[in-house]
Write a structure and sequence with these properties.
Number of strands: 2
Distance between the termini: 53 Å
Number of domains: 1
Order of helices and strands: HHEHEH
Number of helices: 4
Strand order of the largest sheet: 1-2
Structural class: alpha+beta
Strand content: 5-15%
Radius of gyration: 17 Å
Length: 93
């Protein structure tokens, strides 16, 4: 039974790593050069702390120090983020 559980855990880990690498690749395509990053907004929604998110973003966007692109960090899940946005819309903000 243990051998059946172990591969499942590895698949989840590998899937998470693949998704992270894929997202980084896609983000690089949208802003390869600093001019591409102007007037762009990135919403980074994850349970990670802000420091970790900023470190990861700097790997993808080395020119972040120039405030390109505009970064919006949210600590929590995507459904929490959407719910908060909807409540702001209902409040007229």
């Amino acid at each position: 039974m243990r051998s059946a559980i172990r591969p499942t855990r590895w698949r989840r880990l590998l899937a998470a790593v693949a998704i992270d690498a894929l997202i980084r690749f896609i983000m690089r395509q949208f802003a390869e050069h600093i001019e591409d990053a102007r007037n762009k907004h990135i919403f980074y929604i994850d349970f990670l702390d802000a420091r970790t998110k900023n470190e990861r973003l700097k790997e993808v966007f080395p020119y972040m120090e120039r405030n390109f692109p505009t970064i919006h960090l949210y600590e929590g899940g995507f459904s929490d983020f959407v719910q908060e946005c909807l409540s702001l819309g209902d409040a007229g903000i």
